[in-house]
Amino acid sequence: MAPTVTAEPPAPGALVQVRGRRWVVSTVDERAGNTLVTLQSVEDGRYGDTLSVIWEIEPGRRLLPSGSLPEVRAGRFDPPERLAAFLDAVRWGAVASADVKTLQAPFRSGVAIEDYQLEPVARAMDAPRVNLLLADDVGLGKTIEAGLVAQELLLRQRARKIMIVCPAGLTVKWRDEMAEKFGLEFTVIDSARCAEVRRTHGSAANPFEVYPLSIVSLPWLRGPKAQRLLEEVLPPDGPPYPRTFVLLILDEAHHVAPAAPKQVYAVDSQQTKLIRRLAPHFTHRLFLSATPHNGYQASFTALLEILDDQRFARGVEPDQAAVRETVVRRLKHQVVNADGTPRFKARKAEAIPVRYPEDEREIHALLQRFAQLRRRRLNQTRGRRAADLVTLLLKKRLFSSPAAFARTVDVYMQTLKNKSAPSLPPEDDWLLDFFEETATLDDEALEEAEADALARTTPLIHSEEGTQDEELALLEKMHKWAAAHEARPDAKAKELINYLISVCRPGKDWTNERVIVFTEYRDTKDWLHGLLRDHGLGGERLAELDGTMTAQDREKLRLAFQKSPAEHPVRILLATDAASEGIDLQNHCHRLVNYDIPFNPNKLEQRIGRIDRYGQKHTPEIRHFVGTGWDKAVDSYEADLEFLSRVAKKVAQMEEDLGQVNAVLADAVQRRLLGEQVDVDAETARAAAREKVPTEGDVSGQVRRLRETVEETVKTLHITPEGIKRVVDTALELARQRPLTKAVDPDPVYEVPVLTGSWERATAGLLEKLPTGGGEPRRLPVTFDQEVARRRDDVVLAHLGHPLVAMSTRLLRAAVSNDQLDLARVTAVVSDDPELETTLLAAYSRFVLVGADGVRLHEEVLHAGGWAPEGGRFRRWESVHRLGDLLDRALTHGTPATPRIQARLAERFEALRPGLEAAIRWRAETRRESLERRLLQRRDAESRRIVANIDQFAETLRRKLAKGDESEALFSEIEVRARSKEELRQYQMDRKSWEERLQRLAAEKDQELRQIQARYADPRPHSFPVAVIFVVPKREAN
Predict the structure, then answer these.
(1) 3-class state of residue 46 by DSSP
(2) Bridge partners for 856 per DSSP
(3) Vertex 404, ends 398 and 407: CA angle to 5°?
């Protein structure tokens, strides 16, 4: 049936063809003799595209009927496997926005997904808005979980503009992982990209509008250029409905929560204010952090408020049910295999004993004398704080290496000698929070911050001339000692060298073992590099990573360390904490050495998380150093080091949330190194009793439910390794490309041939990123089986989103409107299935429900058919499930009908067509009624959830405000009041904000409900028949 050409304006919801593509009419605006028609695409891969045309002057405009069957004629029947491949391709393009159970994102990922990683996407699809805090343990795969959510939202048309905000060193990693694992092309927006956009799109172009999928580093986002660009796209009078952006993914989200350990009431940092201003302009928000709760409720609630300000408010005790719905938190020990065994191997933390000689104890004694000399003469609190900070900085560097210590002593001596130092006594509030504020800095920024701190403390420490001379003399002695010991390995460095030799090169030849050595300081890393090189552990076997490296160089190094030792020579990685966040190194390394112990235990956990993570096949082995004589030491040198050793071991062996323990342990370390007696176990127990993020109660049950969801999707959409390969094989044949060839491999692994023309794009991502030996990159083979990909890193998983599979499915789906493709969409099979009464005639059709705004609400492939006895009338078969099962069996196990049988069936088809078309209409109508009921249930469920959430939040705010102004209780002490003016202001601002939020909630609830109503309003069905199948009983195939 040919499409109808008409000049009559179409009605909203009608199906039309314009500019060679199919559209659903969204709106019709008639004025002055012209009709402006707004269209929404229903083409595969183009859902969400819109177009506005003047109907009367649009060439080639056509009003389409609901759909027509393919032509059935002799000589134009497909082999059954070809039609089966076509139907699978059509099924995989049918993603239902309103169906919360069927998930496609897991099958569009380039990694084998663990069942537990599906919880965030399942929870996200079940919510009217996505507001989730992914707080899974370090190494459980939060990046993969976030990618699944983003992919599923995009597939369901619930997201178009996505922004990922992350630390500066992780932008390239995020970009590459989204491309490789999900087939999503994100663009890193930075100064260089802005300049390129101006060249290519004009001086007024804004990259946030040019690139719908963007990645921005948090430091760059703070800068004036980014702020100016955001001001151009964000409405000045607040976020509108719908929002300017759709999904915000905030990585390492704890960085934007206000730090609180030394505060009575947490004060917003600049980063907190930045994200607080940006987040409301996103419909959906997804925050990632393994340590979101630092034990201070005001800090945690500030983060929750940014995530969802319709359920949480800064400084207000959150509703625990709301927290459980918002936070996804699983610890490694909770994740088990199907047989109940641990999924992650327990860490093995051991100390490397060091016997410190007398000349190394000498420097500690000098440092102790220096600290005591200062403390004796300083009775002012401010001066003592400054002196203590200097002592701690010197000790930190000393416990790292002579090289790091020499640098700091030299910087401090020059500062003291500098007569132009400021004479006015500066404010000293920054001293209290110095270590908290520098805890997240990488080595380069940390070095600058510590040097700046030494300079800023000088005016706070008033010295008489003679006293300063004595202090300088001690500093000179310490510098001389450090310079002398810098030239050779000290006792700790010798033990490190011995350990590395025993693991990596016990004899003449190198083993395949790898080790990561972490230090806080670049000075220490550089010093160790020289020592290892001098002891035969350098060259191509030794790599370095620090904060001065570009994102591209960091990624290149990561790839090298993740390659098999048989393919890349690197064995030892010297890294600063620039490598401790977001860089995965677990593929071929399970050994890590903490050369020094950071004062912030969270850094230790982040370091360990580089190897103790999803994909690790061996027991993670963590090493640190401890003096052999600490228990009988006459001074505190070994005792201090042993205390740090116990902290390191405690962190490595902790199974619970480190977040609330981190701040307390960091403070304990500082107090211990200033001479206090501190009990690590008691401090940990005290911290563990604080508020913390609740973990999931029944992870095993959660995983079972998620596994059932995946299995149901596989059954519904026929997503199997064999099915995906069949689609690719069929598409390559139709496109006249060379076929895949089975690799010489026991696993189902295939070599991809050289493809020509536009199909060259299908091989994107198959070349290895880091060629072995610097030669030409080889093309990696592919597998369609997730289980094979799970245990191998030398193959590429060809998932539904991979270019090879995506191009194949697009080609097959295009057969509906492409007559040039050798795909008739008709087949006939002979079967001995016992359910066959007589010849069965059936059709498959795409069934689409489109909302009032033209957005697809639901899509699936329906089948309908009935019996077609020779010489009799068509009789509809109403048992839809039995019909579907029989058709699946016939396509899988049936044999192609002979040309004689095909000719006979083609001759009968026109007489049977009316009955088949009636069956298709009946199936579409019954499905429409069922789906509309489900959509109404879905609409009502979303509405009830919004109402319940906002009403509960309003009640929480009312209870908080009813308590009155609590500032007197919070800031009662004179000393506290004196140093807490900013905190008091923050409290007063928050209290005012609670009142304003309460007043706005009713209007926001109404607006949210209107959005939900509009989304599900007036669904319109469209049916597109796509294929015909005859199933002939073997007894009639004569």
Answers:
(1) coil
(2) 850
(3) 115
Q: At what angle do helices 899-962 and 981-1016 cross, to 10 degrees?
A: 140
Region 88-100 average pLDDT? 80
pLDDT tens digit sequence for 998-1028: 999 999 999 999 988 888 888 888 888 899 9
Residue 571 neighbours by CB distance under 10 Å: 24
- 3-class state of residue 1031 by DSSP: strand
Classify burial at 509, counting beta carbons within 10 Å of its beta carbon; exposed 0-12, middle 13-18, buried 19 or more: exposed
DSSP code per residue over 719-763: --HHHHHHHHHHHHHHTTPPPPEE-SSSSSEEE-----GGGGGGG
- Cβ-contact 59, 40 below 8 angstroms: no
Per-residue pLDDT band for 423 (boundaries 50, 70, 90) equals very low
CA distance 958 to 954: 6
Positive/negative CA dihedral, 214, 218, 222, 224: negative
Residue among 96, 102, 157 at smallest CA distance from 927 = 96
Name the strand (E) or helix (H) holding 827: strand 826-831
What's the CA gap between 1032 and 346, in Å, rounded?
59
The answer to whether the Cα torsion of 427, 432, 434, 440 is positive or negative is negative
Task: Give the rounded distance of the alpha carbon of 519 from its chain centre.
Answer: 27
**Cα(65)–Cα(1023) distance, integer angstroms:** 9
Question: pTM of the full predicted structure?
Answer: 0.81
Mutual orientation of helices 381-400 and 429-437 as an angle, nearest 10°?
20
Report the half-sphere exposure of 441 (CA within 13 A, side-chain side): 16
3-class DSSP state of 29: strand
Measured on CA atoms in the order 204, 209, 210, 213, is the torsion positive or negative? positive
> Could you count the other beta carbons within 10 Å of the beta carbon of residue 205?
15
CA distance 921 to 929: 12
Strands ordered across the beta sheet of 21-31: 50-54, 34-41, 21-31, 15-18, 62-63
H/E stretch holding 947? helix 899-962
Q: How far apart are the first and last CA of the chain?
A: 32
Alpha carbon distances (Å) from 119 to 103, 529, 624, 919: 11, 43, 36, 39
Q: Which long-range contacts (CB under 8 A, 24 or more apart) does 673-682 make?
A: 673/391, 673/392, 673/395, 673/640, 673/643, 674/371, 674/388, 674/391, 674/392, 675/636, 678/643, 680/643, 680/646, 680/647, 680/650, 681/650
pLDDT (0 to 100) of residue 465: 54
Q: How far apart are CA 840 and CA 5, in angstroms?
A: 35
* Residue 440: Cβ within 10 Å count: 21
